[in-house]
Amino acid sequence: MYQTAGQPSSNIWVFDIETAVRGTAREYLSSLDVDADKRLKDPAKIEESKKEKRQELIDKAPLYWWYGQIVSIAAERLSDRATFQVHGLDEKKNIRDFFNLLYSESDSVRLVGKNSLGFDFGYLVGRCISLDLGVPYFLRPYRPIEDIDQCFSSKSGSCTTGKLSDYAYALGMSKSANGSDVAGMVDRGEWDQLSSYNQQDVTITAEVLRRWAKEYDRHA
After folding, report:
1. Whole-angstrom distance between the N-terminal and C-terminal Cα of the chain?
2. Into which CATH architecture does domain 3-26+64-161 fall?
3. 103 touches 112 (CB < 8 A)
4. Which of 63, 111, 151, 154 has its CA 20 to 30 A from that of 45?
């Protein structure tokens, strides 16, 4: 039996996930207020431009865990080619079936994939956080977390890290403003609104970290 990075191949599973847009996210993006091409003047063309931009967001939505869902997981054990496959729209079951398989195999499982650092690992973590499942040990980075984006990726430019408003949407939370609104609040002396916005950001950040720190319970 050969080894990879000092670990027996019996503990290594090669895996891949497939994703699709969630129905609720499709509805949200279909009604999202977007900017039309600024060069357009005709009202009909402006509306058509907005429609096209919304469709572009929907088409890309499966790439982002805050809008997407995991609809299929496939894996193969390196040592003996044993395979695992689950699919369907019951995302929580898909994820739990995969995790429970890995927990039943060993206490030191290692996952390997293609572009897993830039996509699969972060997407799985994001969906675990969104569904409040807890995060298993084999998806946790081997370093202290100093920025919540580190929960989702160690790779620069990963599409699994987003804006705080994206994370808030995935958690069913809301933001009353954005960083671009701060200057106006200060100019208008809206200190209470500014303080509320500031606290919202902290609360959302804390909730992401709280759900990430929650251990996955295979018996739940």
Report:
1. 35
2. 2-Layer Sandwich (3.30)
3. no
4. 63
